[in-house]
Amino acid sequence: SRPIKIAPSILSADFADFGREIQAIEAQGADWVHVDVMDGHFVPNLTFGPPLCAAIRPHIKTVMDVHLMIAPVDPYIDAFAKAGADIITAHLEAGPHIHRTLQAIRAAGCKAGLALNPGTAPQAAAPLMDMVDLICVMTVNPGFGGQSFIESQLNTIAALRAMIGDRPIHLQVDGGVTPDTAPRIAMAGADVLVAGSAVFRGGSVADPAPYGANIRAI
Ligand code: DX5
Ligand code: ZN
Asked: Is the ipTM of this complex over 0.90?
């Protein structure tokens, strides 16, 4: 079976201490660092933008995985690439020209990710398989950490695993990942699990050991 990567979402970290939070989760076994960018328009919440990404980049030794929950996307791709994103993931629902967006992400020198909201059929990704390095299945409605996993999305994960076949495309799952849901998610075929609240609960930069225990429990 494929190795599972854990990508903690810093949405659940201490916003006043991102540098040390990132160092702590990487020391505790995080494979990637997942950065949730929200615009108060595509999703009903606001987080941060390219300057914050640039500021945290020197603290990341693994992979900066930037999840854009913004619309439009295209005017901001170069700024996130310059800020040091390794992967830029855009939502299929964020505009009328997702193919162009994915092209632009690769042209900017980043790996291209495609995110699908829970209301989007997996087959919508079919024409884009040669354009993507990662597909992100949202298992909550995007906008907030700490929501409940939408069980019916296990079907979407399994359908995308079948569509991906042997292609070198990561299948990421984002939202409601916990020690309870993770085994079903892995069984359905995901290989990168984003987890915010389930990683950061119970720990702090002063006492980061719970982060490691939480990561291993997933
Ligand atoms: C949701 C974000 C997620 C979120 C996950 O809009 O894309 O990355 O932070 O949080 P948890 O793991 O708490 O569901
Ligand atoms: Zn995310």
From this structure: yes
